Amino acid sequence: MHMNLTWADNANRILVVKIDGRWSWRELEPLMTELFRIDSERSQPFDLIIDARATEMYEPNLADYLRGRHAAPRLAHRRLLIIVGVDEFSQILWRGLTAMPYAAHLKAAFFDTVDEAVVYAAQYTEG
To answer: What is the pLDDT of residues 86-112, one digit of tens each?
Structure first.
């Protein structure tokens, strides 16, 4: 598995995480550590885009993993979570899981391309 983090804009408000290949939950831990480091150094909100178009497999037990590992920790400065390139079944599964109280902070918008996601994040206003 390969992971790449890049800012999609000059203001460093839209962070894109690209994940390539097959992955395991254990391999995501360094990514989470880096995201929490970035979050801890920020004073302004940022949007997180996860580009999953090149992933080959999802690990089992997503609900247990989210509840056990990421129910309490939250990125304090993350505004939007956007996921790119997942199929409709995965979107339905994600929406169902994030309807649970322990995972509500992980609700996401879904797009087919990173460009669409960046435009959405740049134009999004809370209200």
So the answer is: 999 889 988 998 898 878 888 999 999
